[in-house]
Amino acid sequence: MSSVLAAATAAAPVLATMPPRQRAEALVAAADALLAAADELVPLAMAETGLAEPRLRGEIKRTAVQLKLFADVAAAGEFLDVRLDAADPDFVLGPRPDLRRYLVPLGPVLNFAASNFPFAFSVAGGDTASALAAGCPVVVKAHPGHPRLSDRTAQIVGAALPAGALGVIHGQEEGVAALRDERIAGASFTGSLAGGRALAEIAAARPHPIPFYGELGSLNPVVVTPSALAERASAIAQGFAVSVSGSAGQLCTKPGLLFVPAEFAAAEAFEGVAPHRLLHPGIVDGYARRRTEILGTPGVTVTVEGAVTDDGVTPTLVETDLATLLKHRDTLLEEAFGPLSVVVRYTPGEPLGAALTELIEGSLTAGVHIGAAEDSPWLHELVTALQSLSGRVLFNGWPTGVAVTPAMQHGGPFPATTNPTTTSVGTAAITRFLRPVVFQDCPQSLLPEPLRDDNPWNVPQHRSPAGESSAWGSLAT
């Protein structure tokens, strides 16, 4: 671990002063190297995770797209958020100095990799891509579910980057030690609520606390309105089954709660789903425990029993009503990481939005299926509630499948994430690994390149000229 941290520390000033276009070139080279190695990496991932080849080939492509997306973010330079306020002797509050503000990289970042996305949320995943684009070296604490894949991915991707920019460590003890190490300036995590909370507390308790961005757990409630159910009940059932059972339900965006206004015939849609291996024994144990707890809850009816066997798991679907969910919230409102979901009946017209706000603390996503041209005060209230408890509100769709695109938000109120103002997918993810610095009355020769008048990096600069303050407030009128 010590050598990896030392290499990252040495790489930090190199990355920080590297012109954005050079960072971009390195990220594109890393993406191309990853794609070129797909025939080697995918079989290794299949052996370690049990995930299917089509899923993994799609994921490796997604990972390369993430790297290239952040290459463009780096090259554009807009992420630096350069703001130049000219010296102004006539400033309305008294003379204003010359102020030049921009964002600088935090320094070495520790990334705790996820088990369920061995490419996209692992060594070369979105956290790594956004940190590298920001100019931060990355130390990845590899997930024990795919250690050989982690090492090989780091070798392939790291060869395209400056020396020390990407390193891997293994083991819980090393991960915790690295999080406590003063050379680490920030951390990201994707995993369980218990693990994320423990690591967040360590990051906050350091002599010099650091930002910790954790993605923890999510129920992702979806509501079906009476109009939607009347129009397309069969299609909704089919989409629900695919979303719950895909990748054996081992997705942080799996819909764990489905609210319906009447009896919902979904069992048929789950027929024929083949057993699927879970990622590692720890997930098997956790899923089996949650499944047993849910099936044993009074007032819960089993619709699709499913199973946990040596060959893998098959989906489990249960049904209850809103009153039971409220009564047994301690049992039913904990994520079951696997192919299990709870269907909840509600009475049409009742204040469902208020009930969801009371029941659900925070979620990555929330969704609603509505009828053609449906609109009502009840629906507006529901949508407002879904916005308050999640980071992404979907209409007539399913939350599994997170588009890698600038506007994506993959984060939400606690316990979905430790910081509801950030995202781990989309170009805004880069802001997690940056901090602001202002230079006041600094000579041009001593200014960093993005703040100089000649702008050698050719990045966007937002300028506030002298005399502007006298007109402040005019836009409001």
Automatic annotation (TrEMBL):
Superkingdom, taxonomy of origin: Bacteria
Gene3D superfamilies, sorted: Aldehyde Dehydrogenase, Chain A, domain 1 (3.40.605.10), Aldehyde Dehydrogenase, Chain A, domain 2 (3.40.309.10)
Record's keyword annotation contains Oxidoreductase: yes
Keywords in alphabetical order: Oxidoreductase
InterPro entries: Ald_DH/histidinol_DH, Ald_DH_C, Ald_DH_N, Aldehyde_DH_dom, Aldehyde_DH_Superfamily, ALDH_KGSADH
Region (Disordered): 449-477
Matches recorded under CDD domains: ALDH_KGSADH
Keyword Cytoplasm found: no
Domain annotation Aldehyde dehydrogenase: ranges: 4-265
This protein's name: Aldehyde dehydrogenase (NADP(+))
